Inverse folding.
């Protein structure tokens, strides 16, 4: 029994879009799939650390984590007035933040990545450890995953 206040819902076809090519429904099904992808295009902050700090220089895990935290907080603070960063940091979003932590082989690769990001206009913070004065990691401001994922696709998840 439906009430006058209940909206009627369109029926959704569960058929394969390939079998519906001649019916015009393939485009509708593909459009709905694209809409779902847009909804899943979450805000994300990328953090990239140097793996050699662990493997070759024997840094403690806590020190590596601290470097990533420094870069992440600095990137957020530097871009606190950016609308996406502000949305990422809203109180109601704090329990739903997305971060992707990746690794590069060493300082040269990290600096090369930072240069490529700068050239592409991807805002980030390259963290330079002091007083040693060398780059340990970088972090982006918050971006929609679709906007920046291509810049990180060749990197491995940090393990």
């Amino acid at each position: 029994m439906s009430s006058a206040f209940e909206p009627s819902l369109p029926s959704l076809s569960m058929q394969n879009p390939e079998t519906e090519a001649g019916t015009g429904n393939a485009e509708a099904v593909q459009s709905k799939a694209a809409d779902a992808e847009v909804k899943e295009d979450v805000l994300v902050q990328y953090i990239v650390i140097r793996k050699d700090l662990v493997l070759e220089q024997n840094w403690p895990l806590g020190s590596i984590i601290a470097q990533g935290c420094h870069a992440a907080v600095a990137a957020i603070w530097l871009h606190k007035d950016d609308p996406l960063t502000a949305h990422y940091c809203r109180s109601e979003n704090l329990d739903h933040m997305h971060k992707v932590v990746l690794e590069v082989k060493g300082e040269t690769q990290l600096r090369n990545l930072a240069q490529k990001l700068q050239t592409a206009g991807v805002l980030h913070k390259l963290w330079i450890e002091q007083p040693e004065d060398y780059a340990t990691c970088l972090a982006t401001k918050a971006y929609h995953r679709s906007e920046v994922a291509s810049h990180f696709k060749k990197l491995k998840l940090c393990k």
